[in-house]
Amino acid sequence: MADRLDTLTQRARRVLTFAQAEAQRLNHHHIGTEHILLGLLAEGEGVAAKVLTHLGVDLKRARSDVEFLAGRGGRPVAGEIGLTPGAKKVIELAIDEARRLHHSYIGTEHLLLGLVREGEGVAAGVVESLGVTLKNVRAEVKRLLGPTTPIPATIIDGKAIAEQVRAEVAQRVAALKQRGVTPGLAVVLVGGDPASVSYVRAKGQAAEEAGIFSQSFHLPAETPQTELLELIARLNADERIHAMLVQLPLPSHLDEQAITAAVDPQKDADALHPVNLGRLFKGEPYLLPCTPAGIVELLLRSGHPPDGKHVVICGRSNLVGRPLAAILMQKRKGANATVTVCHTGTRDLARFTRQADILVAAMGAPRVITADMVRPGAVVIDVGVNRVEDASRKSGYRLVGDVDFEPVAEVAAAITPVPGGIGPMTVAMLLANTVTAAEAQAAGEEGAS
Ligand code: GUN
Predict the structure, then answer these.
(1) Is the CB of 268 under 6 A from ligand 1?
(2) Are residues 88 and 200 in the same domain?
């Protein structure tokens, strides 16, 4: 809740200051809904005061009614006093009312709406006796402020930005070729998971388009671990191959840790080898994991640098959440974010997601991030790619992200689509890693000769 108080208008802030002063004046050792109402009535000038006046409320009389009902405490207040659960609820509801009205601030009118909606305690009794209802307050707010239409979020075009990255990669490939080095990428897939098959195909194709030598290895699902390790060892020794990846997830009989650790860290296109992850966590990265690197690149190139922002990441996977947190917390330009990582153990997820300037959904569950979980004006990055049934499609399914796209796009300032957001960026960053690995290996050989 406190995270949203920076969007309070000056008048709304004053209402809360008045609420505290009223509580202290009445020797009450808490700030309750009745004090917020007293604050609203005392403020007297904001939209809430206008609404109440238009609804026939005499502000002065209402104030003495509330004061009479609330009564006076015996002992004077010493020290700080806190909000009651009811008062906290009023502020939560005020935030929700602002969101529903597509307002990017929280004003006195939203506090009034929150108070009426909360509907309990002394304040609710007074409000009801004055004939003030949620319906007539909402109608009056709309009449006073005019219709508010949502400003749709900017759609961050991952495909177009990935094209830029790929064009830059192609230039670096050409420069390497002039030095007699053709960057080589090997992609290994075990089993026939349809999504993985299509990702691996896209990666191979993109590599070829950038002028990278690309080799794909499609092994049967039952391939023994020793056989896969042998292939990795061969690729480690193959001078034509500067980078490789083993597509994840792997069939359950294969040990993912052992497989990622078998890749030569110099050739680790995914940057998932413990050495590369260790370097990243120390702040001395060689290569960066592709999806997190793609997210950061997309943020920078779309004009949403993470520097100084609060980034909330939902999901702690080794592929996305964990390394993304490590990248974003680094002390350098293009990172320098305050990072919160939420996961399946997080209680009240929405409490955290609503604090995000940049919200990254990487949970792998369809449309779990709903509009009420997003702060108006936030940037939303959707990493999820989920297949959901769709009888109207020839395939019988369609792809959706982890974000409930349309409603969230009405609240957010910018959002990535699925497909066409993070997916193409992951591929582009794989190509960039391949070229970085080839450049590093070529420099090493040049240095050695
Ligand atoms: N599966 C989904 N994304 C990735 C990725 O970036 N790398 C690998 N190896 N497997 C994945």
Answers:
(1) no
(2) no
- Which pLDDT belongs to residue 3? 46
Domain count, the chain: 2
- Residues β-bridged to residue 331: none
Q: Is 148's pLDDT higher than 80?
A: no
Statement: residue 449 has pLDDT above 70? no
> Of 60, 55, 176, 73, nearest to 116 (Cα)?
55
Out of 42-46, 184-188, 276-280, 335-339, least confident range = 42-46
Is residue 150 in a domain? no
270 in contact with ligand 1, CB cutoff 6 A: yes
In a domain, 390, yes or no: yes
On whether residue 449 sits in a domain, the answer given is no
CB of 290 sitting under 6 A from ligand 1? yes
Predicted pLDDT at 77 = 84
Catalytic residues: 203, 247, 270
388 and 412, same domain (yes or no) = yes
Going from the Cα of 190 to the center of ligand 1, the distance in angstroms, rounded, reads 12
C-alpha 56 – ligand 1 centre gap (Å): 63
DSSP string, 281-319: HHT--SS--HHHHHHHHHHHHTT---TT-EEEEE---TT
Instruction: Tell which wins on pLDDT, 447 or 222.
Output: 222
Most ligand 1 atoms within 8 A of CB, residue of 198, 256, 259, 319 to mutate: 319
Q: How confident is the model at residue 447 (pLDDT cuts 50, 70, 90)?
A: low
pTM as predicted = 0.78
**Minimum CA distance residue for ligand 1 atom 11:** 248
Contact 314, 361 (CB under 8 A): yes
126 plus 18 within the same structural domain: yes
Q: For residue 215, how far is its CA from the centre of ligand 1 (angstroms)?
A: 16
CA of 265 to the centre of ligand 1 (A): 16
Residue type, 403: V
At 2, the pLDDT band (50, 70, 90 cuts) reads: very low
Check which CATH number belongs to the domain holding 414 and give it.
3.40.50.720
**Is the CB–ligand 1 distance for residue 291 below 6 Å?**
yes
Q: Indicate whether residue 260 lines ligand 1 (CB < 6 A).
A: no
Tell me what the mean pLDDT of segment 122-147 comes to: 90
State the CATH number of the domain containing residue 55: 1.10.1780.10
Q: What one-character-per-residue DSSP string does 122-180 give?
A: HHHHHHHHTT--HHHHHHHHHHHH------PPEEP-HHHHHHHHHHHHHHHHHHHHHTT
Same-domain status, 96 and 233: no
Tell me, yes or no, whether 283 and 392 share the same domain. Answer: yes
Q: Which residue range(s) make up the domain with 95?
A: 2-145
